[in-house]
Design brief:
about 220 residues, Arc Repressor Mutant, subunit A
Length: about 220
């Protein structure tokens, strides 16, 4: 009877004591092997190329390349790798971007060692695990998004750009009126199209008029 191969795990965290503790705990778990420890996102990418891990335990806040960008790059290089976020942060500006970047599971550092090990095994089986608080926040986000019109997702600046766009202003006109760079205008226009789920400026303008957002 053949032995199953151990799940290869890479640790990416800029706190050495966290890495030492995780490596020690996971080293006692059957079927799990810590193949490398990285103290930065850049080192995490390098070690991932070297060890081709099945699962990466990823911290979010690190100097240099943060966990969001590291996750994004890992997904491009190793789409089958499962990234499990292990962080102290539960705020929206970190949680949602890393999930959109491809994170497979999301745990807090207050999780018990057994819960982390179970999440690693679940990831290897293709099953995601979310901290209960994370799951609750995501459900509320999607519930609120379903109830609210799409334009509620726009920032104040994006609303300004949309109103000018609806008036037929060019990117240069908008840049001049708002005193911002034309690249910034293009960035806002791209975000507006994505958030309103429309294909072009004309559709965005029509949306603005239909919803009373433009004169």
């Amino acid at each position: 009877m053949e032995m199953e191969e151990a799940i290869k795990v890479l640790l990416v965290d800029d706190h050495e004591m966290v890495r030492i503790g995780l490596a020690a705990v996971l080293g006692t778990e059957d079927g799990i092997e810590v193949v490398g420890e990285a103290g930065s996102g850049e080192e995490g990418i390098r070690l991932a190329r070297e060890y081709n891990p099945d699962v990466v335990l990823m911290d979010l806040v690190m100097e240099g390349m943060d966990g969001i960008e590291t996750t994004r790059q890992l997904m491009k290089l190793f789409p089958d790798c499962k990234v499990i976020v292990l962080t102290s942060y539960l705020d929206d500006e970190k949680m949602y971007p890393v999930i959109e970047a491809g994170a497979f599971s999301y745990l807090l550092k207050t999780s018990r060692a057994s819960e982390v090990a179970d999440a690693i095994r679940a990831a290897a089986r293709g099953q995601s695990v979310l901290e209960s608080q994370v799951a609750s926040k995501m459900m509320n986000r999607f519930r609120n998004k379903a109830e609210a019109p799409a334009y509620k997702e726009l920032t104040d600046r994006e609303m300004e750009v949309l109103r000018l766009l609806a008036q037929g202003k060019s990117n240069q006109d908008i840049a001049d009126q708002l005193i911002i760079g034309i690249k910034t205008v293009k960035f806002h226009v791209t975000n507006i199209l994505a958030k309103l789920d429309v294909e072009d400026r004309t559709q965005a303008a029509i949306y603005a008029y239909k919803n009373g957002l433009a004169e």
